[in-house]
Specification:
The chain has 101 residues and is an alpha+beta fold. The chain contains 5 helices and 3 strands, in the order H-E-H-H-E-E-H-H. Strands 1-3-2 form a 3-stranded antiparallel β-sheet. The longest helix is centred in the C-terminal third of the chain and has 17 residues. The radius of gyration is 14 Å and the shape is globular.
């Protein structure tokens, strides 16, 4: 739980099953504040789950995030959690479903 605990880490990791730019993550996770997203990404990077690549070839600056080999070991777990969430949302009127992976 140290690696994926907290409100947003599992959500971020689920979105990063496919490589994404920072701006794409911001769009796909509108409920997460920019500060929280940045902090969570830094923690995930420090924990070795995510790789950050900065492209400085030309302006504007582009930053990509993707799962590391270690991070990819979480994919089956993340998919199971997402499936459980979808099933729970389908049977519970109080939960609103948003498009996810």
């Amino acid at each position: 739980m140290r690696y994926i605990g907290g409100k947003w880490k599992a959500v971020i990791l689920l979105h990063l099953i496919e490589k994404k730019r920072y701006s794409e993550l911001r769009r796909e996770c509108p409920a997460i504040t920019e500060r929280t997203l940045s902090l969570q990404l830094k923690e995930l990077e420090e924990d070795g789950l995510v790789t950050r690549t900065v492209h400085t070839d030309k302006a504007p600056l582009k930053v990509d995030y993707e799962l590391t080999k270690f991070g990819k070991t979480l994919i089956p777990l993340l998919m199971s959690i997402a499936d459980w969430g979808k099933e729970t949302a389908a049977s519970n009127n109080r939960i609103k479903m948003k498009n996810m992976v």
